[in-house]
Amino acid sequence: xxxxxxxxxxxxxxxxxxxxxxxxxxxxxxxxxxxxxxxxxxxxxxxxxxxxxxxxxxxxxxxxxxxxxxxxxxxxxxxxxxxxxxxxxxxxxxxxxxxxxxxxxxxxxxxxxxxxxxxxxxxxxxxxxxxxxxxxxxxxxxxxxxxxxxxxxxxxxxxxxxxxxxxxxxxxxxxxxxxxxxxxxxxxxxxxxxxxxxxxxxxxxxxxxxxxxxxxxxxxxxxxxxxxxxxxxxxxxxxxxxxxxxxxxxxxxxxxxxxxxxxxxxxxxxxxxxxxxxxxxxxx
Length: 284
Known about the structure:
Distance between the termini: 64 Å
Shape: globular
Number of helices: 15
Structural class: alpha/beta
Number of strands: 6
């Protein structure tokens, strides 16, 4: 009996080790991925600097622009997924989101600047957008999608349309080609929305449109009012991740507890290399 149990335990250990082996072999690539994203992102040290970076996105530019956000979850996905990494690096503006990236930047010897998360920033951008602008909300599902659209109509946006986040990329491209908006908010989550944004920017027709595409994650659920935000004191103290974990433990456990712990460990292991790359980034 004991031998049988030992054999089962040994088999389980080796199966788990085999699952982890590919990640162990590529752990050194974590620092390369992290450094590339740190070099790409645009830290904002003050509200005035943030406004200076964001204002051009709302002005006519004669082409499609993409605004993306990078957090610890994005770094872990980009480490394992070269296609997603390429999509993040192709963004016209990449902003830091969350305490995990602040930790990574400090370990690289860089000042984190402001927390430019999309949940706070997108409503601010909407407030500055001319009300006659056409807006497309792509992502989430009903009833959240419809209620998010109702929220925008209350803000004065009448020329808008919606589509859920469970279609093929070609359907979204056809929809946007037929009725090009000035603003597209993608609320599909990583990495789907970033991959779609890259496809939109690569489309020969849409690339010529005066269009801003924002990768917004759960923003449509938040705009709908059906998904509550963390209390203000938790947001200000960097604890919004804990609020989301407590609300959705099954969905968020792997992201925040398993991948979050691995992110912390890898950023510590490669802290010296990150500092070297951080100095190179400062020099550029």
